[in-house]
Design goal:
By secondary structure, the chain is of the alpha/beta class. Helices cover 48% and strands 13% of the residues. The chain contains 20 helices and 15 strands. A five-stranded parallel sheet has the order 7-6-5-11-12, with helices on both faces. Strands 1-2-4-3 form a four-stranded antiparallel sheet. Strands 8-9-10 form a three-stranded antiparallel sheet. β13 and β14 form a beta hairpin. α6 crosses α7, α16 packs across α19 and α17 packs parallel to α20.
Length: 541
């Protein structure tokens, strides 16, 4: 609906001689019902351009759409706002013809889009923060794919550098401790108990032979064993979480293929690399960064930034993605400017790189925040959360807030079977519709093509509006890369459905067929929304 109103406004602007994008206006949902279903400030905005009274411009606009069957009426309010009241007959006609294709946006050119997410170092199991990033990244990929874009999901495996060395050293210490050796884990090493199990497997496979090897060889074996075991645990958890990837990209590949070196040479030829104090520096300040960045240290070791630049050069220039979406944890906020600068330096418009910073998750149990510290190896594994509350509850809750907002995840709440639990509230709405058909032994397919006419109760109209307006939320989710708009739309439909269910008789009523036909469309829409965030639509609760 919002898309259609936007189209009418653009037509009006075109007739007034304005090119698209010149005039910035808003289309909003009025806070009060008496102000209609949608409202726009177009008349107020145009008043400055046309030097006319907003009310006069509003009247001109209304005149151009007065015969549009979409509206019951259109009114001028306040200083020049235009309020739109949707026509119930139009709503039910739209609902009669509703298919999944209705919710797809009108896009001129489908884009080749990469969504890179999770990409947790294979140094430990996934924690709840990774879970939120996984749910958000996967949901974004689902939404963009539904909208018609060619989407590829990618996991970047950080299997090179200091962190992997520390993992190997920490594992080797655990191995030696099994033989009674008084070794200590490096100060910045990994202290998780999961390394003890990996060390035990090394002992079963190698006995005490690692103790007799050269340190570098023993370290290599321990590092590979630990990273492989941890990566398998990560992938098993993600599979259970309904998250899959099209490609796993190893950081090591960037070094072995020579891409890191060729990228630095590429930047050097452009004049963006210089030497200082024996190190190589990247002139990122030329592209808006706060300071230039070291790309190769004086000891010859490359920085993480070097491989990241090479990786993004590979994404844009080798694999030719139109848009790259990186889903990162909020602790990477300081990295955004330099990454945008790097992309611009390789000749790509920085707007083509979208970086989503996912804020932290606070787990709440019995009204109290669960203490977590990654440094002390005191974190809650994603697997344990899935075991406790289930995949559906976890996925819904992880995307239920904007990515730039902290998320309070109440473990007790999402296990309740009540309207207080948003996951249950939405799934129960779908199950209620399924139950109506099941109890009456009716086939949904028989009602999918039936026309919906003669419905005029407020609960019916409100339910029809919420269902059709779900498209607004879906488009906003795609435009802003914010899956929480999907949960917002689903909750609105569920609220209207429950009110309808408690007030309106369906089976055995004089409008049984029309109401059943409407409920089929509502159920289809709920299922679509749940599919887009990886949550199951349950027939029974």
């Amino acid at each position: 609906m919002r898309e259609r109103i936007d189209g009418l406004i653009k037509e009006f602007l075109s007739k007034k001689g304005f090119n698209e994008g010149v005039v910035r206006y808003e289309i909003e949902y009025p806070k009060r019902e008496e102000f209609g279903d949608y409202s726009t400030n177009i008349a107020l905005v145009l008043a400055k351009h046309l030097r006319k009274k907003p009310a006069d411009i509003a009247s001109e606009f209304i005149e151009t759409i007065k015969d549009n069957p979409m509206f019951e009426r259109v009114e001028i309010a306040g200083a020049g706002f235009v309020n739109f009241f949707l026509n119930p007959a139009f709503l039910f006609e739209e609902l009669s013809n509703l298919k999944r294709s209705y919710f797809k946006p009108s896009i001129k050119d489908a884009k080749k889009i990469q969504v890179e997410f999770v990409s947790a170092n294979p140094t430990g199991p996934l924690h709840v923060g990774h879970g939120r990033g996984a749910a958000i990244g996967d949901s974004i990929a689902r939404i963009l794919s539904f909208c018609g874009h060619k989407v590829e999901r990618e996991y970047y495996i950080n299997d090179a550098g200091l962190q992997m060395q520390l993992l190997g050293e920490s594992t080797l210490v655990r191995y030696r401790q099994l033989f009674g050796m008084d070794d200590e884990i490096p100060e910045e090493g990994y202290r998780g108990e999961y390394l003890v199990e990996i060390a035990k497997k090394l002992m079963v496979e190698y006995g005490d032979s690692l103790l007799k090897m050269e340190h570098d060889e023993a370290l290599r074996i321990a590092t590979e064993a630990a990273s492989e075991a941890i990566l398998k645990t990560i992938m098993d958890t993600l599979e259970h979480f309904r998250v899959s990837f099209d490609l796993f990209f190893n950081e090591k590949r960037l070094y072995t293929s020579g891409e890191v070196e060729s990228t630095i040479k590429f930047l050097s030829q452009k004049g963006y690399i210089y030497e200082k104090d024996g190190a190589l520096w990247f002139k990122t300040t030329l592209f808006g960064d706060d300071k230039d960045r070291v790309i190769r240290r004086s000891n010859g070791a490359y920085t993480y930034f070097a491989s990241d630049v090479a990786y993004h050069k590979n994404k844009f220039l080798s694999r030719n993605f139109d848009t790259v979406i990186d889903v990162w944890g909020s602790d990477h906020h300081g990295y955004v400017k330099r990454m945008k600068a790097a992309v611009e330096a390789i000749g790509v418009e920085p707007e083509r790189l979208k970086i989503i910073l996912v804020q932290i998750v606070n787990l709440i149990r019995s009204g109290k925040k669960v203490s977590m510290s990654t440094r002390k190896a005191e974190f809650v594994e994603l697997k344990s959360i899935l075991d406790e509350v289930g995949v559906d509850a976890a996925r819904f809750m992880f995307v239920s807030r904007s990515t730039d907002s902290h998320l309070d995840f109440d473990l007790d709440l999402v296990k309740k079977q009540s309207s207080d639990n948003p996951v249950y509230y939405v799934q129960y709405a779908y199950a209620r519709i399924a139950n109506i058909f099941s109890q009456a032994s009716l086939d949904k397919e028989l009602y999918r093509q039936k026309p919906i006419k003669g419905l005029n109760a407020k609960e019916e109209i409100d339910l029809a509006k919420a269902t059709l307006m779900f498209k607004d939320h879906l488009l906003r989710a795609a435009e802003d890369l914010e899956p929480y708009f999907i949960t917002r739309g689903l909750l609105e439909i569920a609220e209207r459905l429950h009110k309808f269910y408690n007030s309106i008789r369906v089976v055995g009523s004089d409008k049984q067929d029309e109401r059943l036909a409407m409920l089929v469309k509502v159920a289809d829409t709920i299922k679509l929304g749940l599919d887009l965030i990886g949550v199951e639509a349950k027939e029974r609760m």
